Amino acid sequence: MSSNVNTDGEVTQLDGRRPPDEVVTTETVGDQKELSQLLTRMQRRIADLERTFRPRRVDFEDFPCEGTDIDPVKLRLPHRFDGPVRWWVTRVKSAGIVQTTLIEEQPSSDQNTLELLVFFEATLSIRVEEAGANAR
Q1: Which residue range(s) make up the domain with 46?
Q2: Are 46 and 120 in contact (CB under 8 A)?
Q3: The pTM is what?
């Protein structure tokens, strides 16, 4: 499950799923052999999906930061993954030159909230993704 979170805290789901290729019809139900084959294919697909690791992620979009090297700004990003995360900057909007290495993860980060210090002025989008330890 993936989502975007804007600066107002509004969440938008991004799964973009398409409808299934095969459907069960009254004709399919009447033909035992065809129904059996359809159910077998569905079971295989479900098993494949259950084995695939798809980490949850949240995109925190367009957060204005007015930090400086003397007075950094703290970003609090509530991901609610109940475990360790990895994160990276996905977009930077700035009038000047920006070094994304001037973002520092804080020890005050916990299992559900990522806290970062930003040492420059820009508008940032940051992706937070669950890491393997508690991934579902």
Answers
A1: 11-51
A2: no
A3: 0.64
